[in-house]
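hiii so my PI (J.) wants the whole complex modelled not just the main chain, which honestly fair. so below is everything: two entries, each one labled with what it is. i double checked the lines twice but i was tired so who knows lol
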Amino acid sequence: MSDQSPTCPIVTRRQFITGLGAAVSLGVAGGYGLGLWRKDPGVTNPVTATPATTAPTTLPIGSIGQSMAERTLVILEMGGGNDGLSMVVPHANDRYYDLRSSTAIGDPLELDNEIGLHPALVGLAARYEAGQVALIEGVGYPDPDLSHFVSMETWWTAHASGPTASGWLGRYLDAAAGPRQPLAGISIGPGPSRAMLGDTSFSVSIQDASGLSPAVAPWIDDVDELMGAWSGFAQAGPDEDPKLAPLRFAIASAAQARDQLAAAIGGEMEAGGRRRGRARVENFMGLAAQLVVALEEPSVIYVHGWGDFDTHQGQLNRHGDLMSQLDAALDGFWTTLDDAGAMEDVAVLTTSEFGRRALDNGSGTDHGTAGTQLLMGPGVRGGRYGEPPSLASLDPAGNVTHTVDFRSAYATVLDGWLGVDADTVLGGTFERLDVYV
Amino acid sequence: MTYTTMERTAHVARRLGLGTASAAATPEEAMAAAFDTSADLAEIPAIKPPVDEDEATDYQVVVPGLLWWVERMAAAERPLEERMSWFWHDHFAIHARKVRFPYLAWQNHLTIRSHALGNFADLLTAMSTDPAMLIYLDTVRSTAKNPNENFARELMELHTLGTGTYTQTDVTEAARAMTGWVVKLPFARRTGYSLFDDAPDWESLFVPRRWDGGTKTVLGESGNFGMADMVDLLLDHPATAGFVTAKLYRELVGLEPPSTEVDRLAAQFQHDYDIRALATAIVESPAFLSDAAIRAKVRTPLEKLTATLGAFGGAVDIRSIQLLDITGFVPFTAPNPAGYPEGAVLTGPHRTVHTLDLALLVPDPPPELSVPEVFAALGVRDVSSASADVVESAPSAAHRIALAIGSPEFALI
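here's the output for the full assembly
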């Protein structure tokens, strides 16, 4: 890519891959290739094998609704398999207490005569009463595989089976943002979420409030000078090794994203640092709120890396602690936005790869099937959606049967909130929830 | 694009090891050096088995081992042993948080290390009852009454056969065969861990009453199978040798292997499962030194760190672990059972920018090196004029080193 202009450093991921194909010879992925995002050696030829199995990714860029261009969708991933029955508790169902002899929630915050929220979700309950929270019960996918790994793949790609390269939000970003808006999709967490991987769009990932600033050695006196010089690597020379092109692109886009973030957030990016444990999701959601307020661009922010929900043991304490963290994170998030007058343009959707086994194991719960999602925001028509799965008729493994396809919430936010053709992004038609009216 | 002999020599060292640039003059010399395991090295640190649960769940227990491991990766001696130890660590991925007892993660590493260039059948057998693996993939919770499919699925999908060669029924039946295994701990815990006093602490243990002793049908064979039978079935299955061969070929050559090449290499591998022999055969194939193979892979954050340590002789301390943490590459913390990320995802903005953090590992004051010397120390011999210009224009020797670490050339192996 020696013809790459220094004033236009952003090339598309498709160009990135094409350039790579030229470098490594077509059909030979080497260490690259979107198929290797998840290392799946079963995909023998990631570059050429993927288009056949992915949904179309070439929506016209103008397809985003004008009035929706300001909107942001924040996904909060609850990794490990969140127990929906402990988050939204069927307190009037005797069968629930039979199944959950050691893990039942005895004192939920009652929302109606059937369900209540986990007692730690005080802030969420208040927002539910204010009509800003949609609870989606019974969410799962067909032929559930109880592996975290397969289930996460399914949720990320929104394909129920088969290897695919792109994530559902990557396909959305391809359609709505394209390659020219590197900050349209931001992952907050330990790297870009697979869900954000597109063919033409590029997703930035950051994981703390220090943003894209390196921790420099003490003998580097001026970090801006260093970074200025470093961004010079974006410029290719004549007749050079073409294998360098993807790396020059990576440096160019990182430098550009860093500049934009610095311009938008400035000194605040130096604050924060890298807190662990309890504060993790609060930090992540706090950063998400900060980015929504400071930046024009983000259309999707994907918060992930909060993965402690695999509560096989000690569930009451562990899950209770997670619910406290969730409530604090959401409260901080909405308060920040409210203070900045930016609530109206934001929606939050939670995901988790599966719910947990209906019958507990004496101290925790094993991998299960259907779970519960939250969809929040001022634009939401609050209330209950979906259908609570029957606790009376479990499958042979002791799992409930899902009542809502996981792509329903995706379809609902894609065309109801973000204003794109959900069917194209998802590669099929899924029932919309009546959340946006 | 053709590369110089020096770059080809550097390529061999980058691919077959994890750390220091090769002192060899030719690719052939570098290969011989990589396979050489005769060097006498610092002994593996003895990590004392924890005695109570608080100690056992504290990650600090294994930090001395982790630092030793990073130092070994950065060293010039026995490079292929380190490459293969990491390869299998990634192949049989675990996460210390789910394993819960880091000591077991460390023991898992020592087991893998002892087989890294040995025999795959032995390695697979060891992993099938490895305490950390049994916990990580929920086998300690898997009983005749309530079999857990996690390990059964990953054992077939990720460790041996690859997708498309088995059915969900095979997974369900294999899970039944793999029940009955627990881990003996020196303190009381709940389900899945044994309290038998006569068994050695921190080792796995077969408890017949937890095992499903009925007849199972897996991969077309029926019998009263247990864990060892499952391992035998998988080693006998023709897909296993091909799957592992192709994966190691991708690791070492960096290219997708032609199917004829996989068939050729796997035929021998299935016969003896000799890992060193397979690695030798792969490296001796012409593709390994081809232009296409050179710089065909993205260097991982771990490989960047160990190469930087090797280049400048920085001390290995807890900072190395902290820097790996920033980019998500701390050993024993694989993000999922398929192991660590690779390829294009490693070139995202976060990891790209934080490559520059590695200058923290260069001793202070940094050495006064010319541009070619800085790159040579980092194992990069063919430097583009554009990258050389960027480093050349740096205001100081310190900046030259930091920039070379952040260069496009260094980001590829």
